[in-house]
């Protein structure tokens, strides 16, 4: 009796959850490549720390909140907000760097924009957000479309039949309050930029469209391109694939599930940092033509080696946050990507660690074009709630979005599950579950996580984290000479691991204020940082299973954890470049090292 009741209550809840969120569509691959209009530009805003536009005075979800964008109908009418008369913000962009009064704001901002749309017959429409940090609720023409949690991943709502040709009203409630049960959680060492930080589009497709696709080689075989395509709905239908430069023109037959796959004999020029060859690829379904630029390469490990296109490589890397120093704000788009990755190239890198969350799509496309291998990560960082199954679900959603959006980028060789997570059964199970899930989404890349030195025996650093078993590459962050010991202590250290796997040092480094000079034992001088790099590089060179490094970090970045007046002033100073992009001494140390490193 009781169980039947429990089951029906459960089904009832499940049913309502499904209808409440039915409109957030599974991630659509390559929205940018579809017919679309941009909703970027100025949006009117209301700053709403009390969430007055969402809750009524009984703290119930209001039926007449700011999302209605109402105007008084008579002279006597009372509406206590007006988007038109309010301030505005540029989209894409964080709010903190655009308005001084929002610099440290954590809470709700309402965004509003009107748009017209050239409606066509038989087209489906989607409202797409590249990312909003952190929690968003989206309304169109006064009605809620849905909600999205997660600050660095795209989301999309179907709006077919809901868009008018003129004067549509879209309102987004963006809330960047840090949440204990969020991914990340309340504590991070980066700035909590809020807002609609990436591009917004209305995209259109034909009735059934290509939802997802992947083109890749498999390890050990450079003569077969594998392609798989998934339609949005089940339909047996032919899809055309064109890769003109390879003289490929093929029909793929989707089965009744709407899935097609094909292996094609072809010998593409392989993508590599030395020659980042990309091919124009077209997929045609009905009236939709989807264009992409795709490179072909393989990546695998063999014992303690990492092999790119079958050959052993060393990852000469640098870590990067998605922050642009010139604006002291979130980076987005090709121009920012060119600047950040251009610096990495100039430094002599063949690899970048994009920390600590999925970066915007333009960054990955630029890495493809420039020939930089990429480590791409989700913000499973420090002390997120590993025991909570809902948190696991959130992490998986972010993984899924990251992988779906970027899986055709040849540059990405490593999916990173986590950063500096404290060992426990809950954490081990959590991240193991993420590994299994990632492999089910994409088995053509390596999995890693930034671990820490497990323990020390005299001068030996030992890496035996139980997660090592599930990873392909062992990532390790270490701060010898900064958070512990002196820089020269590195010289007497040796390293051991219980795993027959390659290791990358995913972080090392120390802080320096650009232009602050002194002796090499004085903290925060450029000389200290330089000395730390010299000693670190000498130590690292002697570790036989070390197959790459991504020192922390390319550019100084904002972090409220960094308070030291006159030195930090709200910035983490571990950049090789200052907050204005000037080179510190350690830049030249690493640059020289990479020039000579085989
Ligand atoms: C770390 C974290 C990174 C921090 C860095 C630091 O280990 O992974 O997010 O910013 O140390 O500077 O302390």
UniProtKB/TrEMBL annotation:
Belongs to the glycosyl hydrolase 2 family. The chain crosses the membrane at residues 2-21. Keywords: Glycosidase, Hydrolase, Membrane, Transmembrane, Transmembrane helix. Gene3D superfamilies: Galactose-binding domain-like, Glycosidases, Immunoglobulins. Residues 300-532 form the Glycoside hydrolase family 2 catalytic domain. Residues 85-202 form the Glycosyl hydrolases family 2 sugar binding domain. This is Beta-glucuronidase. InterPro entries: Beta-gal/glucu_dom_sf (IPR036156), Galactose-bd-like_sf (IPR008979), GH (IPR017853), Glyco_hydro_2 (IPR006101), Glyco_hydro_2_AS (IPR023232), Glyco_hydro_2_cat (IPR006103), Glyco_hydro_2_N (IPR006104), Ig-like_fold (IPR013783). Pfam families: Glyco_hydro_2 (PF00703), Glyco_hydro_2_C (PF02836), Glyco_hydro_2_N (PF02837). Its EC number is 3.2.1.31. Residues 210-297 form the Glycoside hydrolase family 2 immunoglobulin-like beta-sandwich domain. It is an enzyme of class 3 (hydrolase). It comes from the Bacteria.
């Amino acid at each position: 009796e009781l169980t039947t009741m429990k089951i029906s209550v459960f089904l009832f809840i499940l049913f309502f959850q499904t209808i409440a969120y039915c409109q957030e569509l599974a991630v659509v691959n390559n929205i940018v490549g579809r017919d679309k209009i941009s909703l970027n530009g100025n949006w009117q805003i209301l700053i709403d720390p009390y969430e007055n536009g969402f809750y009524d005075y009984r703290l119930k979800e209001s039926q007449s909140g700011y999302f209605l964008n109402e105007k008084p109908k008579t002279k006597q009418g009372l509406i206590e907000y007006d988007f038109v008369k309010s301030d505005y913000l540029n989209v894409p962009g964080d709010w903190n760097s655009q308005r001084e009064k929002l610099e440290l704001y954590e809470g709700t901002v309402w965004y509003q924009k009107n748009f017209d749309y050239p409606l066509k017959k038989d087209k489906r429409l989607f409202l797409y957000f590249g990312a909003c940090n952190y929690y968003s609720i989206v309304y169109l023409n006064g009605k809620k479309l849905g909600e999205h949690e997660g600050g660095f991943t795209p989301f999309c709502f179907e709006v077919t039949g809901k868009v008018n040709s003129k004067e549509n009203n879209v309102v987004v409630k963006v809330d960047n309050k840090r949440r204990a049960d969020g991914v990340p959680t309340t504590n991070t060492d980066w700035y909590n930029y809020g807002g609609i930080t990436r591009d917004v589009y209305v995209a259109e497709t034909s009735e059934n469209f290509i939802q997802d696709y992947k083109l890749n080689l498999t390890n050990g075989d450079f003569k077969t391109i594998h392609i798989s395509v998934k339609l949005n709905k089940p339909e047996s239908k032919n899809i055309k694939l064109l890769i003109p430069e390879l003289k490929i023109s093929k029909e793929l037959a989707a089965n009744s599930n709407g899935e097609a796959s094909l292996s094609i004999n072809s010998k593409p020029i392989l993508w590599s940092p030395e020659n980042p060859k990309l091919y124009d690829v077209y997929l045609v379904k009905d009236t939709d033509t989807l264009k992409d630029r795709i490179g072909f390469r393989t990546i695998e490990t063999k014992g303690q080696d990492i092999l790119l296109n079958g050959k052993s490589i060393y990852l000469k890397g640098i870590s990067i946050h998605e922050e642009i120093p010139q604006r002291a704000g979130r980076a987005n788009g090709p121009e920012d990507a060119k600047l950040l990755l251009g610096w990495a190239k100039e430094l002599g890198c063949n690899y970048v660690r994009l920390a600590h969350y999925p970066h915007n799509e333009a960054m990955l496309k630029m890495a493809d074009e420039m020939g930089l291998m990429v480590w791409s990560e989700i913000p499973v960082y420090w002390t997120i709630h590993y025991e909570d199954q809902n948190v696991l679900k959130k992490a998986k959603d972010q993984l899924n979005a990251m992988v779906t959006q970027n899986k055709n980028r040849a540059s990405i060789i490593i999916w990173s599950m986590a950063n500096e997570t404290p060992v426990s059964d809950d954490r081990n199970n959590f991240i193991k579950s993420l590994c299994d899930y990632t492999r089910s989404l994409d088995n053509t890349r390596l999995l890693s996580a930034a671990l820490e030195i497990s323990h020390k025996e005299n001068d030996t650093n030992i890496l035996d984290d139980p997660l090592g078993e599930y990873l392909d590459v062992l990532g390790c962050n270490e701060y010898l000479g900064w958070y512990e010991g002196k820089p020269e202590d590195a010289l007497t250290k040796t390293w051991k691991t219980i795993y027959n796997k390659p290791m990358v040092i995913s972080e090392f480094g120390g802080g320096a204020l650009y232009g602050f000079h002194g002796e090499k034992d004085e903290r925060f001088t450029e000389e200290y940082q330089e000395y730390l790099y010299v000693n670190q590089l000498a130590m690292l060179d002697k570790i036989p299973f070390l197959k790459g490094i991504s020192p922390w970090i390319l550019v100084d970045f904002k972090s409220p954890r960094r308070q030291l007046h006159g030195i930090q002033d709200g910035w983490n100073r571990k950049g090789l470049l200052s907050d204005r992009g000037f080179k510190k001494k350690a830049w030249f140390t690493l640059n020289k090292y990479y020039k000579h490193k085989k």
